[in-house]
Every structure is written in C-alpha cells, then in structure tokens.
C-alpha cells in the first residue's frame, strides 16, 4: 500500500501502524506493537513539517495533537525534504481515529505549474 495508515483507540493510542507509516516515521515493529500514544510518536513525526526552530516544533506537535483529538479533518503538510503529504483524520465508531498519509508531491507540483498553488504551509 502506498499510503501510511495509523489506527488510534479513543485514548489516542496507536493500535495499528502499517509498514509504510512505520518506515515513514522510523518506528520499530516492537514500538508499533506496544500501543504507543500518538503524543509519544510526535517527535518521530518531525519529518512531517517544514524546518522549524525548536520552540516552534513543540507548538507544531501540540497543534497536530489537538487536530487529531478534534477529529475529522484534512491537512496538507510539508516534509523536511520538501515532499507534500495530505493527512486525513477520520473519526471512528467508539471514539477512535484513522489517520492516513498520502504523498501528493507530484500533484502539488503539477498544480503549482498551472496555477501558482500551493499556498504556504502554516
């Protein structure tokens, strides 16, 4: 599968991370099966943001956690190696969340060449 998938329980503990997500976040199989909290994984998601000053990185992680807690949303992120990733957060029955991450770098480049898109990442 090309997309990264994370399933979170109602307490936002990861119950499943597919291989693509484990590779992308550089998470060992052992850590993935230990049901880590999404908050504890946020340092590992450092690649899913533009280069930020250390004080801004913590704010970014807190903002992402708040977005996941709030539920349903779509957010475009930029990686530190300038890839664009679309993150979908979907509410699941029982209060869990499903997060999917899709690389949209090629789509963003094509759209940019046609229309001046994308807007800056915040």
Short description:
Helix content is about 35%, strand content about 25%. The chain is α+β, with helices and mostly antiparallel strands.
User: What's the mean pLDDT score?
Assistant: 83
CATH architecture term: 2-Layer Sandwich
User: What structural class results from the helix and strand content?
Assistant: alpha+beta
> What proportion strand?
15-25%
Report the sheet with the most strands, covering strand number, pairing sense and barrel closure.
5 strands, antiparallel
Helix content: 25-40%
Number of helices: 5
In CATH terms, the superfamily is PAS domain
How many structural domains in the coordinates?
1
What's the helix-strand series? EEHHHHEEEH
Parts with pLDDT < 50 across at least 5 consecutive residues: none
Strand order, main sheet: write it out: 2-1-5-4-3
Rg from Cα: 14 Å
Task: Tell how many strands the DSSP assignment holds.
Answer: 5
CATH class annotation: Alpha Beta
CATH topology: Beta-Lactamase
Would you mind describing this structure in some detail?
This protein is of the alpha+beta class and 122 residues long. The protein has one domain: 2-Layer Sandwich (Beta-Lactamase). The chain contains 5 helices and 5 strands, in the order ββααααβββα. Strands 2-1-5-4-3 form a 5-stranded antiparallel beta sheet, with helices on both faces. A hairpin with a 5-residue loop joins β1 and β2 (14-17). The model has no long low-confidence stretch (mean pLDDT 83).
């Amino acid at each position: 599968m090309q997309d990264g998938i994370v399933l979170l329980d109602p307490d936002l503990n990861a119950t499943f991370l597919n291989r693509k997500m484990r590779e992308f976040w550089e998470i060992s199989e052992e850590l993935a099966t230990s049901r880590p909290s999404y908050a504890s994984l946020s340092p590992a998601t450092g690649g899913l943001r533009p280069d930020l000053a250390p004080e801004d990185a913590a704010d970014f992680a807190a903002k992402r956690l708040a977005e996941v807690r709030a539920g349903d949303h779509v957010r475009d992120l930029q990686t530190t190696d300038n890839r664009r990733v679309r993150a979908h957060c979907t509410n699941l029955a029982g209060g869990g969340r499903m997060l999917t991450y899709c690389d949209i770098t090629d789509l963003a480049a094509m759209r940019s060449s046609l229309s001046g898109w994308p807007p800056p990442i915040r």
